[in-house]
Write a structure and sequence with these properties.
The protein is mainly alpha-helical and about 150 residues long. It has helices at about 15-20, 45-50, 55-70, 95-115, 120-125, 135-150, and strands spanning about 20-30, 35-40. Strands 1-2 form a two-stranded antiparallel sheet. Helix 2 (about 45-50) runs antiparallel to helix 3 and helix 3 packs across helix 6 (about 135-150).
Length: about 150
């Protein structure tokens, strides 16, 4: 865990240190030079549960895989949706739509595998990023993530 003391040249606001856990990592920039960077490792409830040891790495990976399908499937709520927009450029809209449909289908199949009892907790924590409220919800989440891990092949 990074110290709460803020260096003068540190671009990260002090609030970030109070609310999230950051780790220092060595990275490569575009010119091949090494530099030290900080990465937030507790940004979502799923990340926090993993860092605290409340879920296993396998469960965490399965949750991230489900979130990826949810996000890439376009299932995240949006404020504006224009279904009548006409495409006039030479973009790859159809390919993107096909990939989006594949992710949606995979997301729905994964939730079907989890079942009706645990799917609510899984979607709430993984996709909507709302923390599990009780011990019972946490246990249901763990069981749902175990099923997801099996389904995704972890």
């Amino acid at each position: 865990m990074i110290s709460m003391a803020k260096r003068i040249d540190d671009p990260i606001p002090p609030e970030r240190y109070r609310h999230d856990e950051l780790v220092s990592e060595e990275t490569m920039d575009a010119h091949g030079r090494r530099s030290l960077a900080k990465r937030v490792v507790t940004q979502t409830p799923l990340d926090r549960y993993y860092r605290r040891g409340q879920i296993t790495q396998r469960q965490w990976q399965a949750g991230n895989e489900l979130w990826t399908d949810w996000y890439n499937g376009g299932l995240e709520p949006s404020l504006v949706m224009d279904l009548d927009r006409v495409r006039v450029d030479q973009s790859t809209g159809n390919r993107a739509s096909h990939r989006r449909a594949e992710h949606r289908e995979r997301f729905h199949k994964a939730l079907k595998a989890v079942g009706p009892i645990a799917s609510n907790e899984v979607v709430q924590v993984v996709c909507q990023q709302i923390p599990a409220g009780s011990r019972m919800s946490m246990e249901i989440l763990r069981r749902g993530l175990d099923v997801l891990a099996e389904w995704y092949g972890y």
